[in-house]
Amino acid sequence: MTNIEKPKFHILEVSGKIYLSWCLDMEMHFQGQDLANTIIEDGISNEKDKANALIFIRRHLHESLQTQYLSVRDPHILWRRLKDRYDHTKIVILPQAQYDWQNLILQDFKSVSDYNSALFDIVFQLKLCGIKLADAELLKKNFSTFHALNIVLQQQYWQRQFATYSELISVLLTAEQTNELLLKNHDLRPAGSKALPEAHANFEKNTSHFKGYKRRQEHNPRRDSKEFNCPRKSNFGLNHGKEKKPKKVINESICHHCGMTGHWSCTCRMPKHFVDLYQTSLKNTSKRGESHAIKINPTAITTVDANNISVGGLLFS
């Protein structure tokens, strides 16, 4: 039965890629279990502790490594052979870690959290190689890699004189989270997205034409001006709602020269003989009386009879 007890951490692969972190985890575990003397040169330990240390080391090795070191019965010997085999990893990791540190730039990352994660990965690799970075170096790296558009923001953070890198990164993370919330709120309700009022909507309330409401009197400098005192035109008159009366048809003027319509006498262009004929007809009409008028001569009535009446030589019966 294998894997009776789960590993406490990652096992060591044949490639030895994680040897440095694996070695650190093993040392910390042995110190906690009082088994550190089992892997130290000239360390004093009993057989029981050696057996427990050997079992724990083999449980965190790859199956190929377990087979290769199957004959080793002493934990100190096994620890030294693994160190001789994979301790050169420091020499391999160090150049790459130094290169990553030199090319670490804040503006290359989409978020502050991504930059912070990459920074601590590089710091851990350098620490495994025996190089420790102080907070002053971490702060300098951060301030020197701000984007050129954020130069004012960089100066403001620099003037605050942060003592530790953790203080600076907490402020940057808070500012980043606040900016994300502002952008989300803007996307939910961008500027100018509010519904416009209807074209004929009337939002004035409690106007003066409502009875029983007395508006607050306030001083208005335009009240004494002529424009303010001019009566305003209103669509609500006495005849509001009534049908409009048809307009009177105005007769066109008649030319006094020719009697035609459509022009005035001052602009008349009719020939002279037509004008003379029209003027002659007007004179003749004025001389003649009405066509059905009857002139009564009172002296012509000589006798009045109930049955026969003679008027002007005419006999009516």
From TrEMBL:
Highest taxon of the lineage: Eukaryota
Region of interest: Disordered: 209-243
Basic and acidic residues compositional bias, start-end: 218-230
PANTHER family from the UniProt entry: COLD SHOCK DOMAIN-CONTAINING PROTEIN 4-LIKE (PTHR33325:SF11), ZINC FINGER, CCHC-TYPE-RELATED (PTHR33325)
UniProt protein name: CCHC-type domain-containing protein
Organism for this UniProt entry: Eucalyptus grandis (Flooded gum)
